[in-house]
């Protein structure tokens, strides 16, 4: 066996799906090398045989198959792991060609994690070229620019950046381009990408807003932002992520303006209620009951009669239990998860009320908070709003109503301090010239 073939064989000795197939073309032995998990060898070999009948020699066959001729061992190894088929002749000539591959991608389907009302029902998939095609299908203009990058150390991963020429600020494009070119480590998660865009380690607000709906990604491009795609990740990543992303979607504009404004207002009230309701309950029951009317104060006091826990411990217990139930819904199989957690939540809540561990009023407050937190757009936005309610809750348990307003002020200051490539998180609009409003 040839030295080059032996070298490649030794390099892939621990890969059980690596194959070496010996074939005869024009009375010359040719070795076919590749990974059986990526290559449909039967159909690929049939295609090569058909090309061999149309060629008069091995040299002509190799030239007809591909323009990547006589590459070194490193390029051969790289091509194999990328799913290429390698042909090596007796004279040590070789060629890398794109074979007929196994279909490892799913078809375009409906969105699974985002509700798309009165809008297109297509959703992104894991194949980056399919996702790019979806965008070009909806936005057929030569101003839609595309830049591609190969990042990673152990496994090269493709990242694509899209923007509309003349819309997205040139400074933003150059900053994103520079940061993507500087990536050397493997990109396995969105958080890995966030770190390269300057996100603080313990910052709950992501620099990137993910969506699986092509129409939403196109709307972001038209709003002068950049859209990123990562290979094998079925979402578009909009950069930068802005505050208004959790209050509005492109499909809101399918409704009359009055209804659209009402929907967005309700989402804003939902975010505010998530932050305020638990803290307000603790403040009014333990620190500032005097701000209530006497009848209401007596009602709240009666609802807590016989409960041994302090309001802050009672509320923290219920809030943590609700967050655990939400996490359980996500992790359990979809066929049984919602049913189990719903029954478990109802039984647990009723049992805690009957055991005098929590009040009926608190159960109402926590249920309202749970519904309100689900009104905002995007799972990541709902998560960070739920996380920010804890410091407000702690401050309200110590300083009452004053602590509640101090906590809200702290949250507003914190969100206003966040930036992505110099663009504030609370920006309402990104101008094409790079200014923000």
From TrEMBL:
The top of its lineage is: Bacteria, Bacillati, Bacillota, Bacilli, Bacillales
Similarity-based family: Belongs to the GerABKA family.
Q: Which GO terms describe its cellular component?
A: membrane
Q: Which domain of life is it from?
A: Bacteria
Keyword Ubl conjugation in the entry? The reply is no
* Protein name in UniProt: Spore gernimation protein GerA
Q: Which organism is it from?
A: Paenibacillus silvestris
Sorted alphabetically, the Gene Ontology BP terms of this entry are:
spore germination
* InterPro entries found in the cross-reference section: Spore_Ger, UPF0353/GerABKA_families
Task: Enumerate the UniProt keywords alphabetically.
Answer: Membrane, Transmembrane, Transmembrane helix
One Pfam family hit = GerA
Membrane-spanning intervals of the chain? 28-48, 269-287, 307-329, 336-353, 359-379, 391-416
């Amino acid at each position: 066996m040839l030295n080059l073939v032996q070298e490649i064989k030794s390099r892939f000795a621990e890969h059980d799906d690596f194959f070496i197939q010996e074939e005869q073309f024009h009375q010359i032995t040719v070795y076919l090398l590749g990974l059986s998990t990526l290559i449909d060898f039967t159909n690929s070999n049939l295609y090569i045989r058909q090309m061999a009948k149309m060629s008069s020699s091995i040299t002509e066959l190799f030239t007809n198959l591909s323009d990547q001729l006589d590459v070194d061992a490193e390029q051969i190894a790289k091509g194999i792991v990328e799913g290429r088929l390698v042909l090596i002749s007796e004279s040590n000539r070789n060629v890398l060609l794109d074979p007929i591959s196994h279909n490892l991608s799913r078809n375009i389907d409906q969105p699974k994690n985002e509700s798309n009302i009165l809008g297109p029902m297509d959703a992104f998939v894991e194949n980056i070229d399919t996702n790019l095609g979806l965008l070009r299908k909806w936005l057929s203009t030569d101003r839609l620019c595309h830049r591609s990058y190969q990042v990673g150390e152990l496994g090269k991963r493709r990242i694509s950046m899209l923007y509309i020429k003349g819309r997205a600020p040139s400074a933003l494009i150059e900053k994103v381009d520079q940061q993507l070119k500087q990536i050397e480590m493997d990109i396995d998660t969105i958080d890995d990408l966030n770190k390269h865009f300057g996100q603080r380690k313990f910052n709950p607000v992501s620099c990137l807003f993910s969506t699986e709906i092509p129409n939403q990604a196109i709307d972001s491009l038209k709003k002068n932002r950049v859209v990123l795609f990562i290979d094998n990740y079925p979402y578009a990543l909009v950069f930068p992520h802005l505050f208004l992303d959790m209050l509005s979607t492109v499909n809101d504009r399918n409704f009359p303006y009055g209804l659209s404004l009402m929907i967005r207002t309700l989402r804003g009230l939902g975010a505010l209620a998530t932050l305020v309701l638990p803290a307000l309950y603790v403040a009014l029951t333990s620190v500032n009951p005097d701000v209530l009317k006497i009848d209401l104060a007596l009602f709240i006091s009666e609802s807590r009669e016989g409960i041994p826990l302090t309001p802050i411990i009672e509320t923290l217990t219920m809030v943590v239990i609700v967050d655990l139930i939400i996490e359980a819904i996500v992790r359990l199989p979809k066929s049984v998860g919602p049913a189990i957690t719903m029954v478990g939540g109802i039984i647990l809540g009723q049992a805690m009320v009957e055991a005098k561990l929590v009040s009926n009023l608190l159960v109402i407050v926590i249920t309202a908070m749970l519904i309100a937190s689900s009104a905002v757009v995007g799972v990541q936005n709902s998560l960070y709003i739920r996380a920010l309610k804890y410091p407000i809750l702690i401050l309200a348990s110590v300083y009452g109503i004053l602590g509640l307003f101090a906590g809200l002020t702290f949250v507003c200051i914190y969100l206003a301090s966040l930036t992505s490539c110099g663009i504030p998180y609370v920006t309402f609009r990104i101008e094409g010239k790079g200014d923000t409003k």
